[in-house]
Amino acid sequence: MKPNKYSNITRGYGAGSMTRPEPAAQVKQDPKLSIWFSLATMTSLVLCLVAVIVVVRVVDGESITSWTVGPTVILTVLSNLITMLLSLMLTTSITIRWWREAQRGAGLSQLHQIWAVNRNPLFQPHKWR
Fold first, then answer.
1. What is the pTM of this model?
2. Are 34 and 91 in contact (CB under 8 A)?
3. Interaxial angle between packed helices 71-103 and 108-119, expressed in degrees from 0 to 180 and rounded to the nearest 10
C-alpha cells in the first residue's frame, strides 16, 4: 500500500494507537485581570445608567422629530446593555465565590449548593424547608 499524506496521523488514544495525546495546557489566570475586568464592568454599568438619565432628562418635554435615532431606540439599547452587564457581574461574582470556598476546603456538596443556588435564585426548593 502506498503511503499518502495522511498516513502518519493517528486516530486518537485507544486500540492501535501508540501515541498519547498531548496534555491540556494549564490556563493561568491573573487575579489582577479579573479585578480590572470587574471594575471595567461596573464602570460600564454606571456609564450606561448615567446615559439613561441623560436621555430621559433631554427628552422630557422636548420635540424629538429632529433626532435621527429615537430615544426609545437609545433607551432599549442601553437597557439591553445594562441587563448584559448585570448578568456578567453576577456570573463573575458567583465564580469568584465558588473558587474562594474551594480554596478554603469546602466539600463537593457545599460547592454544588453554591453553584446551584446562585445559578437559579428563583427556584430554590431546598431552602423552603
1. 0.61
2. no
3. 170
Report phi then psi at 68, rounded to 5. -80, -35
Count of H-run helices and E-run strands, the chain:
3, 0
Using a 10 angstrom Cβ sphere, with 0-12 exposed, 13-18 middle and 19 or more buried, the burial of residue 85 is buried
In contact, 64 and 70? CB cutoff 8 Å: yes
Spatial distance between the Cα atoms of 129 and 127, rounded to a whole number of angstroms:
6
85's grid cell: 452587564
pLDDT in tens, the chain (129 residues): 565 555 555 554 455 555 555 555 555 556 667 778 888 999 999 999 999 999 999 988 888 888 889 899 999 999 999 999 998 888 888 888 888 888 888 888 888 887 777 666 565 555 544
Domain extents for the chain? 31-62+69-118
